[in-house]
Amino acid sequence: MPLVQVSLRRGKSPEYHRALFEGVYRAMRETFNVPEDDRFMTITEHDDSTFSVSPTYYGVERSDEVVIIRITANNTRGLAQKQALYQRIVELLQADPGVRPEDVFINLVEVLPENWSIGNGIAQYAAQQG
């Protein structure tokens, strides 16, 4: 169950936001075995005073159009799946809404399955483990 939080500079259209959601969700479905309807995503827009990103860290030339994508997910996937996810997100976001590959910053945060309550105050995934 991934939880996706997207941060970017203020001023993008609702269509741009929808394209971000659709691209990330599609990439997770295609590469991360995310079930249909497992969709929990937010976007937070920032002014310049609350958004600071290095334009050149690690040799990547970023613009002011950086999109930071934080995905919190169960720690059940291997390196190959993670790399496939990152690549597919970049491909889809480049196609729509037109984000440069250099401007896609992805952070995957892995947690234990019992660290989720999907509702009703129950650790649903912990119950599945026995």
Order of helices and strands: EHEEHEH
Radius of gyration: 16 Å
**How does the major sheet shape up?**
4 strands, mixed
Q: Give the helix level as a range of percent.
A: 25-40%
Task: Classify the secondary structure makeup into a structural class.
Answer: alpha/beta
Please, what is the average pLDDT? 94
Instruction: Estimate the global geometry from the Cα principal axes.
Output: globular
Measure the end-to-end span. 18 Å
Q: Outline the low-pLDDT stretches.
A: none
Strand content: 15-25%
How many individual helices?
3
Number of strands: 4
> Biggest sheet, strands in spatial order?
2-1-3-4
Protein name: Tautomerase family protein
Organism: Actinomadura yumaensis
InterPro entries: Tauto_MSAD, Tautomerase/MIF_sf
Which features characterize this protein?
4 strands, 130 residues, 4-stranded mixed sheet, alpha/beta
Write a short abstract of this structure.
This is Tautomerase family protein. By secondary structure, this protein is of the alpha/beta class.
